[in-house]
Design goal:
Layout (H helix, E strand, L loop, with lengths): L3 H24 L8 H17 L13 H42 L7 H10 L4 H43 L5 H13 L5 H78 L2 H63 L11 H18 L3 E8 L2 H8 L1 H18 L5 E6 L2 E7 L7 H12 L3 E3 L2 E3 L3 E7 L6 H17 L5 E3 L1
Parallel strand pairs: 6-7
Antiparallel strand pairs: 1-3, 1-6, 2-3, 4-5
Helix pairs in contact: 1-2, 1-3, 3-4, 5-6, 5-7, 6-7, 7-8, 10-11, 11-12
């Protein structure tokens, strides 16, 4: 037994039962008339009985007739013993529960400092119930509160992690099976996830990124190998062509010299020989010239083949050039994609970081007003929950397009992540800021969304601030975010300027 109150009560009950048993054994001797001492004991017990069960005097036995009294007492004794056993069991159970609660509280980090003594007493079974029980309940409440706030913190962190992962997925631009897997992960991230699911998605994303990079690397390697082989072939062709051309050149020179020599000889013979001899000589020279002409013809054919080869080579080089151009185009598209949000096709966070850096430097240099506004769609979770994520995606696309259309050429809008956007407005003074921001808010509100045949109005909240003296990008963003938070808490569908 642990508790002093209960202990005392049980002890008292045990003594009453023992005494009742002795009275009962006196009364249940029918041959012997109960002596005065037994009767007195019985009567004192009756009054003790009345004390114990206050207000139930009607149910107390009368001491008048001993057999009756004995029967009554036996009945009450049985009841008392049952109650005693029940009480003892309850007490034991209670003690066990208390010990368990005490040890749990001792393990919990919400265990207040001054509870240590109580918990030791409870674990040793030395404390009495009432006061300590309330105290214990109090600690229990504190422990629960702390658990609850930890749970909320945990949920907020999970939400943040999930949004960040969504952003990362959107910034990954792979092709093939990896791209399909990434799309699946993206839609999974839009659902509420348990921490272990989130962790396993993180691992899957890492795997996919590695897989995607391997795939890209393999493609690049293949391309480079092909270029290398093609260049090798082109080089060999060029070498052959060069040497052929050289020998062709030599042959032509040789033939030229030969023909010139022959012509010279004809000329000399023309003057020194008589007609008959001249004819014979001319005939020899003519044969020689004919021979040269035949050789020249062959040279011409070789030249034609060479020309054909050069045309092929040219084609090969032009194919190569085209392929390289295509690859370059792919690379530059991929590079562009790094800064463009896949869903809404406006700039993503990386794009925003880049632009913000440029605008910030310009602001430092020129000191012309630069406004940064954070926008967040109101109750967007409800849209997803009620009409599905595809409807949510559609809304995001349309809102992004509307925001972009409502801004000037020189302004900038990016999807910051999830259902949040960032807008940069330059060269707008504080006094003229309200108008374009209100225009953004109203234009989004006026988009005639229709989901599941229902007209739906979607609103946005905005927090805006101008860059101020001493600001860093981070501090200005933080201020805009705080302003957005206030706009949300003030009822949404509004702008708060800081
Ligand atoms: N369909 C879709 N939903 C997204 C995307 N990115 C984030 N979300 C969802 O946007 C919702 C944001 O919900 P909360 O942060 O609770 O905010 P909210 O419901 O807009 O409420 P308030 O901002 O407080 O007005 C979550 O349900 C996200 O899953 C996306 O790319 N597509």
């Amino acid at each position: 037994m642990n508790n002093l109150d209960d202990k005392l009560m049980l002890q008292e009950l045990t003594s009453v039962i023992t005494r009742l048993e002795s009275v009962l054994s006196g009364l249940s001797q029918p041959a012997i008339d109960p002596d005065e001492q037994t009767k007195a004991a019985a009567l004192s017990l009756v009054s003790q009985w009345q004390k114990l069960f206050n207000g139930k005097s009607g149910a107390t036995p009368s001491a008048a007739t001993s057999p009756q009294l004995a029967a009554e007492l036996e009945l009450q004794l049985l009841r008392l013993q049952n109650s005693h056993d029940k009480l003892a069991r309850l007490q034991q159970l209670g003690s066990q529960k208390l010990r368990l609660a005490a040890s749990l509280l001792q393990q919990s980090d919400a265990n207040p400092a001054d509870s240590a003594e109580l918990l030791t007493l409870l674990s040793n079974g030395e404390a009495s119930h009432q006061g300590q029980l309330w105290q214990l309940l109090d600690y229990y409440q504190q422990a629960l509160d702390s658990l609850l706030s930890k749970k909320q913190q945990c949920e907020a962190q999970q939400h943040q992690l999930s949004s960040r992962l969504q952003q990362l997925v959107e910034e990954l631009h792979f092709s093939g099976p990896v791209a399909i897997e990434l799309t699946k992960i993206r839609s999974q991230l839009l659902q509420p996830l348990a921490p272990e699911e989130l962790a396993s998605l993180c691992l899957r994303l890492i795997d996919l990124t590695i897989e995607g990079l391997r795939f890209e690397r393999k493609n690049t390697k293949q391309f480079l190998t092909k270029i290398h082989t093609d260049l090798d072939a082109a080089h060999q062709y060029a070498a052959i062509t060069l040497s052929e051309e050289q020998s062709l050149c030599d042959a032509r020179a040789h033939h030229g010299q030969h023909i010139a020599g022959e012509l010279r000889a004809i000329g000399e013979h023309l003057f020194s020989q008589d007609n008959e001899q001249l004819k014979a000589d001319i005939a020899v020279r003519m044969r020689s010239i004919n021979h040269i002409l035949v050789q020249n013809e062959r040279l011409h054919e070789r030249e034609q083949t060479l020309l054909q080869r050069m045309v092929e080579m040219e084609q090969q080089i032009s194919d190569l050039k085209q392929e390289a151009g295509h690859f370059q185009q792919q690379l530059s598209t991929q590079n562009d994609k790094l800064f463009v949000d896949g869903l809404t096709k406006i700039y993503n966070r990386a794009g925003m970081d880049q632009r913000l850096e440029v605008e910030y430097r310009q602001w430092l240099r020129d000191d012309k007003p630069l406004c940064i506004a954070m926008l967040d769609i109101d109750y967007f979770k409800d849209i997803n929950d009620k009409y599905g994520h595809l409807a949510g995606d559609k809304a995001l696309r349309l809102i992004a397009k509307t925001l972009q259309k409502s801004l000037r050429e020189s302004d900038f809008v990016a999807r910051f992540g999830g259902e949040e956007f960032v807008v940069l407005l330059n060269n707008v003074s504080q006094d003229n800021l309200e108008k374009p921001l209100q225009k953004l808010r109203e234009q989004v509100k006026n988009i005639p969304f229709r989901f599941k045949e229902e007209p739906v109005t979607i609103t946005i909240s905005l927090g805006a601030t101008l860059f101020k003296q001493g600001d860093s990008i981070h501090s200005a963003l933080e201020r805009a975010d705080q302003a957005l938070y206030r706009a949300k808490h003030a009822g949404r569908d509004q702008i708060v300027m800081d």
